[in-house]
Automatic annotation (TrEMBL):
It holds the Pfam family Epimerase. InterPro entries: Epimerase_deHydtase (IPR001509), NAD(P)-bd_dom_sf (IPR036291), NAD(P)_epim/dehydratase (IPR051225). SUPFAM superfamilies: NAD(P)-binding Rossmann-fold domains (SSF51735). GO terms for biological process: L-threonine catabolic process. Belongs to the NAD(P)-dependent epimerase/dehydratase family. This is L-threonine 3-dehydrogenase. Residues 5-231 form the NAD-dependent epimerase/dehydratase domain. One of its GO terms (molecular function) is L-threonine 3-dehydrogenase activity. Signal peptide: none annotated. It comes from the Bacteria. PANTHER family: L-THREONINE 3-DEHYDROGENASE, L-THREONINE 3-DEHYDROGENASE, MITOCHONDRIAL.
Length: 316
């Protein structure tokens, strides 16, 4: 039987593409998109849409009941750079929206939850290269602290209450159809826009800052794959490491010049540099590959081609 899906935060960077993909797989009527405002016409006009505040348990419960929801994808969150500017609200949104959905599952009102975690759960004391699934985790950002706490609660709700929650630790995400929203990895999206519009880009991180990244198609594929997997193959109920590629600003700039030979990059690191320096350079995701068959499709070369082609054919 098809799941009946509610996406909370459907107008954000991941939610926008996730909504379209889930609608193409499960049918438009089976995927209810929701967000705090009607912020994205593609999402709002392509199927059922509800305005919901992710901090309001009663509103979410009402939607779950009237639409007979089985699966919730909770995508609403404040990302790393924005969270540093508003720590109290970031903690409130990132934690309490998760509790609401976990409690709905505990009360058996929904069957499955997808909740994204992040490489931000790691910190400066974590091994930097090939960061293992199980390792030292001392995040130094508000966002990282909220994601690490969220992971512990997911694991707790699974083991104590039998809640079927599934999660992955996303690296930086690169997408052309929707802008990123206040993260430290956003430069890897901005750079393509500026390369095409201006031929030059001033990067807010230093040239050698290596970070794990992923093309949005892979990120969406991962979310759907982990949700489709048999419950007993999901051995980790906190969150799975997930990896596709790692590069520095200098390396992505070099890749862009293969297609736009006159492109230039300059560097003016700001407060986001400190956040980036606290995160891993590369991730070991063998558990996700072994347990539920995760495989990425896009490396840096393929991502660069996809970004440039899609932005050229969909300007503005
Ligand atoms: C951010 O930069 O905050 C996010 C993330 C790595 O979770 N893209």
């Amino acid at each position: 039987m098809n799941p009946k899906i509610l996406i909370i935060g459907a107008c954000g960077q991941i939610g926008t593409e996730l909504t379209q993909k889930l609608r193409s797989i499960y049918g438009i009527e089976n995927v209810i998109a929701s967000d705090i405002r009607k912020m994205n016409t593609d999402v709002v006009n392509s199927g059922p849409f509800e305005v919901v505040n992710a901090l309001d348990y009663n509103q979410i419960q009402h939607l779950v009941e009237i639409h007979n929801i089985t699966d919730v994808y909770l995508m609403a969150a404040l990302l790393s750079a924005t969270a540093e500017k508003n720590p109290a609200f970031a903690w409130d949104l990132n934690m309490n929206s998760l509790f609401h959905v976990l409690n709905l599952a505990k009360a058996k009102k929904i069957k499955r939850i997808f909740w994204p975690s992040s490489i931000a759960v790691f910190g400066p004391t974590t091994p930097k290269e090939h960061t293992p699934q199980y390792t030292i985790m001392e995040p130094t950002t508000v966002y990282g602290i909220s994601k690490q706490s969220g992971e512990r609660w997911c694991d707790y709700y699974h083991h104590v209450f039998g809640v079927d929650v599934r999660s992955i630790r996303y690296p930086g995400l690169i997408s052309w159809s929707s802008p990123p929203g206040g993260g430290t990895t956003d430069y890897a999206v901005d750079i393509f826009h500026k390369a095409l519009s201006k031929g030059t880009y001033e990067c807010f991180l230093s040239s050698e800052t290596r970070m794990p990244m992923m093309y949005m198609d892979d990120a969406i594929q991962a979310a759907i794959r982990i949700m489709q997997a048999d419950a007993d193959t999901i051995k980790i109920r906190s969150s799975y490491n997930l990896s596709a590629m790692s590069f520095t600003p200098a390396e992505i700039a070099m890749e862009i010049t293969k297609h736009l030979p006159h492109f230039t990059i300059t560097y003016a690191p700001d407060s986001r540099q400190q956040i980036a320096d606290s995160w891993p350079g590369s991730i070991d995701d063998s558990e996700a590959r072994n347990d539920w068959g995760w495989q990425h499709q896009f490396d840096l070369a393929k991502t660069t081609i996809a970004m440039l082609e899609n932005l050229k054919s969909h300007p503005g």
